[in-house]
Amino acid sequence: MPDNPVLWSLDDRGVATVTLNRPEVNNAYDGALIAGVLNAMDELGIKPNLRVVVLRGNGKHFQAGADLKWINSVRPQSAEANEAASRATFEAVQRLNTLSIPTVALVQGGCFGGGTGVISACDVVIAADNALFSITEVRWGLTAAIIIPQLVDAIGIRQVRRYALTGERFGAEDARRIGLVHDVVPLSELEAAGARTVDLLLANGPEALAETKRLALESSFGGMSVDDAAYERLVRLHSLKRQSAEAAEGLASFAEKRAAKWGGGKEL
Fold it and tell me: What is the maximum span of the chain, computed from C-alpha positions, in angstroms?
């Protein structure tokens, strides 16, 4: 197990690289990884020369969504503990979303569940041609409540209504077609493509970049236009669904490597 689930560095140009570092579980997030993202944001936030943040995942995959073993350990805890877990997850994504400096995500391999929310919160997303995506929550009887605003901003309500309901997997070219990623490059060229984007961003005025991003977010659903009460509702819904009987069955089906036995369906 790695000592630190999130690594970060800052070069002399003001370019920070934040690396998700749980490759043994495909960078699936748990409480420690969420705390690591928030800590990285705190530490980088006090750096006066910070200009760009590059987000990447260590290993073969960018980010495999939630660690379902961790979800299953949180689920039987109190309502307060479940809300705290959902709130921390939301805060990590939303702080990335509203960061005043540009963010660039480099995606290889799997990007599932919460990982799609993370990249939706980034300003520029470049995917390797081996990238694979899925908004997976419904497969396990969960909802993607806290990342729906960012997903709607990135790909639009029509695409969310398809991909968040089917949970289907789709490749890098489809991700580009619907707007989830901006560019697709060969895996061997992913780092170089990210470096070219960073150079473009560094050529621009820092204050102009910050104001442009702020103005864009002001007109978005997933940015600053959704008030605190609305986000509290999303956090509450996210945590309540985790504690539902349906989620219990979905998570059991994952652990037992079987199809879920859903009930309560209505005849049409």
Answer: 62
Backbone angles phi, psi at 260, to 5 degrees: -70, 145
C-beta separation of 109 from 169 below 8 A: no
**Of residues 185, 120, 136, 121, the one with CA closest to residue 26:** 136
How many residues would you count in the chain? 268
Give the DSSP letter string of the chain: --S-SEEEEE-TTSEEEEEE--GGGTT-B-HHHHHHHHHHHHHHHT-TT--EEEEEESSS-SB-SB-HHHHHHHTTS-HHHHHHHHHHHHHHHHHHHH-SS-EEEEE-SEEETHHHHHHHTSSEEEEETT-EEE--GGGGT---GGGHHHHHHHHHHHHHHHHHHH---EEHHHHHHHTS-SEEE-GGGHHHHHHHHHHHHHTS-HHHHHHHHHHHHHT-TTTTTS-HHHHHHHHHHHHHHHTSHHHHHHHHHHHTTS------PPP-
- Rounded Cα gap, residues 238 and 124, in angstroms: 27
Distances (CA, A) of 70 to 87, 182, 241, 244: 15, 32, 15, 16
The answer to whether 55 touches 21, Cβ cutoff 8 Å, is: no
Tens of pLDDT, residues 31-80: 999 999 999 999 998 999 999 999 999 999 999 999 999 999 999 999 99
Beta partners for 57?
A: 20
Q: Are 86 and 66 in contact (CB under 8 A)?
A: no
Give the pTM.
0.93
Residue 170 CB contacts under 8 Å (≥ 6 apart), including other chains: 132, 133, 134, 163
